[in-house]
Amino acid sequence: MKITTCIFDLDGVIVDTAKYHYLAWKRLAKEKFKKDFSIRDNEQLKGVSRVESLNILLRIFEENVPENEKQILTDLKNKWYVEYISKITPEEILPGVLKFLEDVKRNKLYMALASASKNARLLLDRIGLTHLFDCIVDGTVVTRAKPHPEVFLKCAELLEVEPQSCVVFEDAIAGVEAAHAGKMYAIGVGDKHILHKAEMVISSFENIIVNDVLNLTKTNKNE
Ligand code: B16
Ligand code: MG
């Protein structure tokens, strides 16, 4: 089937917000539990929803918190995170992304944004990319977290395209799994050892052109 749509994750694909999520979780761990949250443990939070991220963090620290207090903790983490990202500028768009997005437009493919983040629109506005996307599906719209494919399937539904004609760009293992669960192709952005389940892995958008995406159909099991 011909590729019709490129679906982009936001955090870690278009802009490196993982470091800001990390700083905010690290601060929470320090101030509330007097513990140090490592960058290695932070990998487990990528692409995962806010509340599930807290659950993972509590599991790592073997801490128990009553359900009603979880909201207070996630609100605090989000307050700090929003403070950090409010200062983001278009300069923080990752290398090669703008050129690749222009290439997608030139090839008349749909462009969708699919993010687990409830701050996705704020972030897109800050970096000036909102107008480029044909549809935006974020954490305020979906109820099920990756690896469930809901966020990607919703994009296909809104654009009225077949999931098999969509290619998802993801930096998280859970995101690659979600794309496959939705019968879509996955291109990993990051480490090829971590994202080895994807059909293709790029270390940066400087290493890909749209033709590479269109050629996926020739070799792939989705055919
Ligand atoms: P928020 P993505 C995800 O965004 C992040 O990777 C993940 O670390 C974060 O916990 C999640 O969004 C929720 O974000 O707290 O802002 O609602 O990678 O799916 O674009
Ligand atoms: Mg991500």
Outline the structure in words.
There is one protein chain. The protein has 223 residues and is α/β, with parallel strands linked by helices. The chain has 2 domains: 5-16 and 90-214, HAD superfamily/HAD-like (Rossmann fold, 3-Layer(aba) Sandwich); 18-85, Putative phosphatase, domain 2 (DNA polymerase, domain 1), CATH 1.10.150.240. Helices cover 43% and strands 11% of the residues. It is built from 10 helices and 6 strands. The protein has helices at 18-33, 39-42, 50-60, 67-85, 97-106, 120-126, 150-159, 173-181, 210-214, 216-219; strands spanning 5-8, 110-114, 135-137, 166-170, 185-189, 200-202. A 6-stranded parallel sheet has the order 3-2-1-4-5-6, with helices on both faces. Helix 6 (120-126) links the parallel strand 2 and strand 3 (135-137). Helix 1 (18-33) packs across helix 4. The longest helix is centred in the middle third of the chain and has 19 residues, at 67-85. The mean pLDDT is 93. It binds 1,6-di-O-phosphono-beta-D-glucopyranose and magnesium ion. Residues 9-12, 21, 45-50, 53, 78, 115-119, 139, 172 line the site of 1,6-di-O-phosphono-beta-D-glucopyranose.
Quick description:
This protein is α/β, with parallel strands linked by helices and 223 residues long. It folds into 2 domains: 5-16 and 90-214, Rossmann fold; 18-85, Orthogonal Bundle (DNA polymerase, domain 1), CATH 1.10.150.240. The chain is built from 10 helices and 6 strands, in the order E-H-H-H-H-H-E-H-E-H-E-H-E-E-H-H.
